[in-house]
From TrEMBL:
It holds the Pfam family Lon_lid. Residues 119-263 form the AAA+ ATPase domain. One of its GO terms (biological process) is protein quality control for misfolded or incompletely synthesized proteins. InterPro entries: AAA+_ATPase, ATPase_AAA_core, Lon_lid, Lon_Prtase, P-loop_NTPase. Gene3D superfamilies: 1.10.8.60, P-loop containing nucleotide triphosphate hydrolases. GO terms for molecular function: ATP binding; ATP hydrolysis activity; ATP-dependent peptidase activity; serine-type endopeptidase activity. This is AAA+ ATPase domain-containing protein. It comes from Candidatus Beckwithbacteria bacterium CG10_big_fil_rev_8_21_14_0_10_34_10.
């Protein structure tokens, strides 16, 4: 007598649920067809009792493609006054950089109003550590009403980190580009490629090749992650890049960007920023009310420059946070309710070296 193969009922039901998810999902037509072909193969396995790890791979792949923003995007806000207001809230001075950002937004607005492609030269912010490069990315995204995502390139050791790995490999995953798009849920975010000059030396050539594709509007509409094995349109992404210097960046990459130099802060600018921005924020983060701490004006040079010149703001931020934490501790211990920093007590609050 003939023996019919046993049907793996559980797997068959799981495959049917997977098919329903794909049917109701928002996917490009040919990608949906590809998913259905994968599901059909699983159905044959279920029919003949052939459960295998293939189901887990297909399930993982389909869950990934269903959660990507193939069609979702935010509506741009291209209001120059609003953009300047937001940049002024987050950055003191740097008028040349702000002016260039406003010109950039103006190009986007005019091209969009005329029905053209709303693209513009890709900006690369070049400056020393702590000069506010990354913060400008946040400001631009907020001003435009776009989502913001950032990929740190410092120490990046393989192009697979960006492109993902083929599904032929066990435990394969998409690369950071696709992962970031899934997190933000939009196909037109402000996408910051941070510290592109600090990639691993051994992988530099390959990573620069990926950057050429990302930053080229003729190529990035067909960006293909090795895991997805299907092109994702990045043409509506607004890319920004940052670096400390351009010496380690391939010429082909630089050719696709417009370099903007981020100036160092003067001591006078740092003092204003410390008083108006950093100190109020640090007090709030320490749980202290505004007005709890007063600092004599002649002390600011010691706080701004305890160890010599620093182009950015990070040492200053650390010093003020340290002061705020010490004040918070003294407040909790009940020593005082209001604190006044003077020349005779400032050493208690600043680090000694």
């Amino acid at each position: 007598m003939d023996i019919k193969p046993a049907v793996d009922t559980d797997l068959f039901e799981e495959v049917e649920l997977l098919k329903k998810k794909v049917s109701s999902g928002l996917l490009p037509d040919d990608l949906k067809d590809k998913a259905f072909r994968m599901i059909k193969r699983l159905q044959r396995m279920a029919k003949f009792g052939g459960y295998s790890s293939e189901y887990e791979k297909v399930n993982h792949y389909i869950n990934w493609i269903l959660k990507l923003p193939w069609f979702e995007e935010t509506e741009d806000v291209l209001d120059l006054d609003r953009a300047l207001e937001i940049m002024n809230q987050n950055h003191y001075g740097m008028n040349d950089v702000k002016e260039r950002i406003l010109e950039y937004l103006s190009v986007l607005k005019l091209r969009k109003d005329k029905g053209g492609v709303s693209d513009a030269p890709i900006l690369c912010l070049v400056g020393l550590v702590g000069t506010g490069k990354t913060t400008f990315g946040f400001s631009l995204a907020e001003a435009m009403g776009r989502k913001f995502i950032r990929i740190p390139f410092g120490g990046l050791g393989s192009l697979l980190d960006l492109r993902g790995q083929s599904r032929a490999h066990p435990d394969s995953q998409p690369g950071q580009i696709i992962k970031a798009l899934r997190r933000c849920g939009s196909k037109n975010p402000v996408f910051m490629l941070d510290e592109i000059d600090r990639v691993d030396e051994n992988a530099r050539a390959n990573i620069m090749g990926v950057l050429v594709e990302l930053l080229d509007p003729e190529q990035n509409q067909f960006f293909t992650d090795y895991y997805l094995d299907y092109p994702f349109d990045l043409s509506k992404v607004l890319f920004l890049a940052t670096c400390n210097n351009t010496g380690n960046i391939a010429t082909a990459v630089l050719d696709r960007m417009e370099v903007i130099q981020m100036p160092s802060y003067t001591d006078e600018e740092k003092t204003v920023i410390a008083k108006e921005y950093i100190l109020p924020k640090a007090l709030k983060e320490a749980g202290l009310e505004e007005g709890t701490l007063a600092i004599d004006d002649d002390l600011w040079p010691l706080i701004v420059r305890p160890l010599g010149f620093d182009a950015g703001m990070r040492s200053l931020e650390r010093n003020i946070q340290r002061i705020s934490r010490k004040v918070a501790k003294m407040f909790v211990l009940g020593k005082e309710k209001h604190f006044h920093l003077r020349k005779d007590n400032i050493k208690e609050f600043l680090p000694s070296y």
